[in-house]
Design a protein that fits this description.
Order of helices and strands: HHHEHEHHHEHEHEHEE
Low-confidence stretches: none
Number of helices: 10
Largest sheet: 7 strands, mixed
Mean pLDDT: 96
Helix content: 40-55%
Strand order of the largest sheet: 3-2-1-4-5-7-6
């Protein structure tokens, strides 16, 4: 019971939902955007993902530990670090000392998509919502480290990978992974995460795709579907909410 109480408090603290309710991701797009900026971006929230996605992370880690699935955990695309902090907090709550949490991000915000190949993404990335309301999701590595430290979770089980995924992930000194959480927003970031990390995912491990259902502004779904088709992955996609999915690797 203490583990669950701690993790429940941690996720509600990270998401600024101790005293306030979270925005409804299925609300009217304009109203959601306004509430999203107020609740997450312009507050002390350390994560902008819904509580259901924290429950998903927690359940995946619990299953990994219960079944002894080998490997570290990684989030690629971390913003202020909330989900990665929760990963580290979950390991600590369960007394796990032999796994790392990898924190991968440019720490400079979103890249500029090619407007010819990815017109939806280029329009979204250069628009006023992402640039002005969301500040291009740019958060420095120093701020993320401070956020880990504020929760007493900045230690030698946390490793940072600073830079664009295409540059950092291929040579990252990661031997095995049990959980991959991809929140890179765009097609190329998602494909880079899958291309460079999936081979290191242990059988029984999990892949979480944060933006799979965000079809109005990203080609994330296309990146995932193409990768799964090319690799002949038949493991079912499981819905977390209307925007997020995951699957468990079985072969």
């Amino acid at each position: 019971m203490p583990v669950y109480l701690y993790l429940d408090l941690l996720k509600r603290s990270l998401t600024n939902t101790i005293f306030d309710s979270e925005p409804d991701i299925d609300d009217d797009e304009f109203r959601f955007t306004m509430l999203f900026a107020k609740h997450y971006v312009n507050s002390d929230a350390v994560s902008m993902i819904p509580l259901a996605r924290f429950d998903n992370i927690q359940n995946c880690i619990a299953d990994i530990l219960r079944n002894g699935i080998r490997g570290d955990l990684i989030e690629a695309g971390v913003w202020r670090g909330g989900a990665a902090i929760f990963m580290r907090g979950t390991l600590k709550a369960y007394g796990v000392s032999d796994r790392l949490v990898w924190v991968a991000d440019s720490f400079e915000g979103l890249p500029k998509p090619d407007p010819d190949r990815f017109p939806l993404e280029a329009k979204a990335q250069s628009g006023s919502v992402i640039q002005e309301a969301y500040h291009n999701f740019a958060v420095s590595v120093e701020e993320v480290r401070r956020n880990f430290a504020a929760y007493r979770l900045m230690d030698d089980q946390v490793a940072f990978l600073k830079g664009w995924f295409k540059d950092t992930l291929p040579t990252a000194p990661i031997r095995a992974l049990s959980l991959i959480r991809l929140d890179g927003d765009f097609y190329e970031s998602t494909r880079d995460g899958l291309n460079y990390l999936y081979n290191r995912l242990s059988i029984g491990g999990y892949v979480i795709i944060d933006d799979y259902g965000e079809d109005s502004w990203t080609y994330c779904r296309k990146a995932v579907d193409e990768f799964r088709s090319e690799r002949q992955i038949e493991d079912p996609l499981i819905v977390v909410d209307s925007k997020c999915v995951y699957w468990q690797r079985t072969r």
